[in-house]
Specification:
By secondary structure, the chain is α+β, with helices and mostly antiparallel strands. It is built from four helices and five strands.
Amino acid sequence: MGKKDWQNLDGSVDVAEMTLAPNRGRGWRILSGVLFVAAATFAAAYYLPLYRAHSSLNREYRTLSTEAGTQHKQLEDTLETLKQVSAERDRLNTLAGSKKDTAAQVRDAESLERDLGAALKKFVGKGKLQISRDKEKLVLSLSAPALVQTTSGDLTDAGKKVLCQFAGSVKSGNTHIAILGYSASVAGNPAAAWKMAAVRAASAAQLVSESCGVDPRRVNATVHEPTKLNDDVLISVEVTPTS
């Protein structure tokens, strides 16, 4: 190759470089496209199943959440119904027990009425002692002048015997004893009637618990509203069986 040829060759380098440059850029573009397609294919192959699985799990989660909410509501309704049924059952059991207890108390009161009627027979009569019963409550009414002093809060000897014989019949049983004092109203001095009624009730209660042997925890004294006392009752004893 001659000198001129080398010179010509040197002069043609720029042309070669200009010729090769477009081919080199096209190759990179092809390679980049191939890499992009490969990356997209990999991403689609890897992430698409994950996306589908995630979507499926979300749907199942929403379905299960809805079902769980429904079941929770049903459980709450069931528990509320059970609570109401239990409350009604307890109420009915209490009512049945109360009726049973009341029936037993009535039987006890009937039995006590027969016993006292026999024991106090000689004291029963108008102006003396009356024995009556209102369901499970037994009432002994002591009248003046035979059993209670008319002008004071004291019992007569016969009145004391009545209360002690009564106490002997009830002191070993389960009963509650309420002793009520009565007094006629006093014109212009209402406090006097209350005071006399209180003295009578306290006197009878003290006799029953201290002298006649009844547990004082089972006895209480109270005062009745002043009355005209048409039947001359000054003291009454209410006996209620407690079992």
